[in-house]
Design a protein that fits this description.
about 575 residues, alpha+beta, Jelly Rolls, six-stranded mixed sheet, 13 helices, about 30% strand
Length: about 575
C-alpha cells in the first residue's frame, strides 16, 4: 500500500459527486476534502480487517472494494462489492464498536480516509451530510433486508431440493433392496438410475477383480446374456480403473466413444454419463453407464444422485451375492447329503460270518464326501470276494462313480470268479463310461474259506498289510496293475496267498495314511503298521477301533478332508 500523510491538495472532481457529499454545501465539502488522506491499495490488499478498531471511514475514488465476513468454519462470505463513488467503514464511527467485517481491494484502488474526529465534526456541522448518511444507511439496510429475504428463499429452495433428492434416494433404496436375485437386481438398479436421471438407456457393470473384467447381463432378443470386457477397455473400463466421472455432452466428438454399437443397432448416442459405483468403503465395485438424458445434458444433480444410489446399490449387490453363496452352500449340503446316502446304501449291512475267520469293516465319510466303499460278495462254490475301492473326486459325482464301480466289479466278479479277469473287464467298462480325469483304485480278493487261500489283485490301491504275531515281517499286497479306467485293455496280474493261524489282513483307503496333523505330517504306513502290530491278538473289530483312534489322536483338531475306510480279516482257526 502507498499512502500519503499529507492532506489532499487536489482531489479528483468525482469526490464532489460521491454519494455521501453530493448534498453537502461547498464550504463543508471543501473542509472535508482538505482533511481526506490518500491511500493506494494493490489488488487483494486488505483496507481493514474484521474485529479491529474503526478509526476512519473510506471513500472510493478509483477501483473496487469487497466487504467480506469470515463464517464460523472459515468460509469467506461476500457481503458487498463497492465501486468508485461508494463509501464504507462508517458504521464503526457511528456505534463505536469493532469492525464487523473486512474490506479488501479487488483492483488496484485509490481510496481516501476520513478520520473519526473529522467525521464527527462534519456530522455536527453539516445537517445535509447527516441526512445523506442516514438515507444511505437506510437504503443499505433495506437492501440488506431484501438480500436476507432472498437468501432465505434460496435456502428454502435448496432445502426443498435436498428433501426431494432425499426422498428419491429413500425410494430408490427401497427399490434396489426389493430383490436378492443378482441378475434381476442389476436390471432394477439400471431402471432406477434411468428413471431418476431421465436417461434413455444404459448398462450397470460389475467388477470381476479375479479376471480383471467388467461384466453385466443384457437382453438379447428374449434372453439375458452375459457380456464381459477388459477393465481397461472403453469408457466404462476407464472409469472402473481410474474412478473418474465421465460426462460427455456429444458422444461423437469424444475419441473414447466406441460407435460400433450404434452402427450395428441404429441407435444414436448423444450424451453419456459414466461413473463408478462404490461401496461403503469407497472401493469401486461397478460402473453406471447411462445414455441420452431426455431433457438435455446430464447434470451435477444426476451425478450426486448416482453417487448416493451407488452406496445402496452396492449393499444390495453384496446381499444378493451373500444370498447366492448361501443358496450354493445349501445346494452343496444337499448334494453331500445325497452322496452320503448313496455311499451308505451301498455298504453291506453286515460282515460275513465264516468259520475260522473274523471280519470287520468301517467307513466314515469326510465332510466333503468322496467315493470310498467296501463290499463282500458271496459267490458259487462257497467262495467269498472282499473288495475296497476309492474313486477320484468328491461329492455326488464321486459317489455316483463309486456306485457304478461297485456294480461293475460285483457283476464281473460273479461272472469271472477270478480277480485278474474281473478287473480286466471292469477296467474296460469304466474306461468307456467315465471321463479322462476319473479313475478308481481297487483291491479285490477272492477267498476260499475251506483252504484259506485267497487270490487277490491290487489295481493301484493303497497296499494292504498282511501281518502275523508269529513273524516279524509285514507283507504288502502289491500285485495287480494300474488304477481302473485309465488305460483300455490293460492286463491285470493276480497272486495267491494262504492265510496262516492268527494272520491279519488290513485294507485301508488313503484317507487313513494321508491324514495330516497340524504341522502337515501324514499318519503314514509306519504308524499304521505299528498300531496293528500292537493289537494283533485282539479281534478284527478291536484292531479297526485302535487304528481309527490312533488316526484321530494324530489329527487332533484338524479337519479331515478325505474319507476313512478300513476292512480287516483275521484267521482265528
Amino acid at each position: 500500500m502507498k499512502r500519503s500523510n499529507q492532506t489532499v491538495n487536489m482531489v479528483p472532481d468525482q469526490l464532489r459527486h460521491n454519494v455521501l457529499f453530493e448534498n453537502v454545501s461547498e464550504e463543508h465539502f471543501l473542509t472535508a476534502r482538505s482533511r481526506l488522506i490518500e491511500h493506494r491499495y494493490f489488488s487483494g490488499q486488505p483496507v481493514f480487517r474484521e474485529n479491529t478498531e474503526g478509526n476512519a471511514m473510506f471513500v472510493i475514488a478509483k477501483g473496487r472494494v469487497k466487504i467480506v465476513k469470515t463464517e464460523k468454519y472459515g468460509k469467506e462470505c461476500r457481503l458487498a462489492l463497492l465501486h468508485a463513488g461508494d463509501f464504507f467503514g462508517e458504521l464503526e464511527l457511528v456505534d463505536g464498536r469493532m469492525r464487523s467485517a473486512s474490506a479488501v481491494a479487488v483492483d488496484d484502488s485509490l481510496i481516501y480516509a476520513l478520520r473519526r474526529d473529522d467525521f464527527d465534526q462534519l456530522l455536527r456541522e453539516s445537517h445535509p451530510f447527516a441526512v445523506r448518511l442516514m438515507q444511505v444507511l437506510v437504503l443499505r439496510l433495506r437492501a440488506l433486508g431484501n438480500n436476507f429475504v432472498r437468501e432465505i428463499e434460496l435456502a428454502t429452495q435448496r432445502v426443498q431440493t435436498d428433501l426431494k433428492r432425499f426422498d428419491q434416494i429413500v425410494e430408490a433404496a427401497k427399490i434396489v433392496n426389493s430383490t436378492l436375485d443378482l441378475e434381476h437386481l442389476l436390471a432394477v438398479i439400471l431402471e432406477t438410475a434411468l428413471r431418476f436421471v431421465d436417461g434413455d438407456r444404459g448398462t450397470v457393470y460389475l467388477v470381476d477383480r479375479n479376471k480383471r473384467e467388467l461384466w453385466s447381463k443384457v437382453l438379447k432378443g428374449k434372453e439375458m446374456v452375459e457380456i464381459r470386457l477388459p477393465l481397461h477397455m472403453g469408457i466404462a473400463g476407464h472409469v472402473a480403473s481410474t474412478g473418474e466421472i465421465v460426462n460427455i455432452r456429444n458422444a461423437y466428438d469424444d475419441p473414447r466413444f466406441n460407435a460400433s454399437f450404434d452402427r450395428q443397432s441404429g441407435y444414436v448416442t448423444r450424451t453419456v454419463l459414466c461413473m463408478p459405483m462404490r461401496n461403503k468403503d469407497g472401493t469401486i465395485i461397478g460402473v453406471f453407464q447411462l445414455l441420452n438424458k431426455r431433457s438435455g445434458d446430464f447434470t451435477q444433480d444426476d451425478i450426486d444422485f448416482l453417487d448416493a444410489l451407488s452406496v445402496h446399490a452396492s449393499l444390495a449387490i453384496e446381499n444378493a451375492r451373500l444370498y447366492e453363496q448361501e443358496r450354493e452352500k445349501l445346494r452343496m449340503e444337499k448334494e453331500l447329503f445325497a452322496a452320503r446316502e448313496v455311499v451308505s446304501s451301498l455298504l453291506p449291512d453286515q460282515v460275513p460270518r465264516l468259520p475260522g475267520l473274523d471280519f470287520a469293516a468301517y467307513s466314515n465319510p469326510a465332510r466333503e464326501v468322496g467315493g470310498d466303499y467296501y463290499d463282500f460278495i458271496k459267490m458259487e462254490n462257497d467262495l467269498h470276494a472282499i473288495s475296497l475301492g476309492d474313486v477320484s473326486g468328491k461329492g455326488l459325482p464321486a459317489a455316483l462313480l463309486m456306485a457304478s464301480a461297485q456294480a461293475t466289479v460285483r457283476s464281473q466278479a460273479l461272472a469271472t470268479r477270478s480277480p485278474g479277469p474281473c478287473l480286466d473287464h471292469s477296467n474296460n467298462l469304466l474306461f468307456h463310461s467315465t471321463s479322462a480325469e476319473k479313475f478308481v483304485t481297487m483291491f479285490l480278493g477272492i477267498l476260499d474259506p475251506h483252504t484259506m487261500r485267497m487270490t487277490y489283485c491290487n489295481a493301484g490301491h493303497q497296499y494292504p498289510l498282511l501281518l502275523s504275531p508269529h513273524r516279524p515281517e509285514t507283507l504288502y499286497l502289491k500285485t495287480g496293475g494300474i488304477m481302473l479306467g485309465m488305460i483300455e485293455h490293460f492286463k491285470f496280474q493276480e497272486e495267491i496267498i494262504t492265510l496262516q493261524q492268527d494272520d491279519v489282513l488290513l485294507v485301508v483307503s488313503d484317507g487313513i495314511t494321508e491324514a495330516m496333523n497340524s504341522v502337515g505330517e501324514q499318519f503314514g504306513e509306519s504308524r499304521l503298521e505299528a498300531v496293528v502290530r500292537k493289537h494283533l491278538t485282539e479281534s478284527a473289530a478291536e484292531i479297526l477301533e485302535a487304528v481309527v483312534a490312533a488316526v484321530a489322536d494324530h489329527c487332533a483338531s484338524m479337519e479331515r478332508l478325505d474319507d476313512m475306510t478300513l476292512l480287516a480279516m483275521k484267521r482265528t482257526g
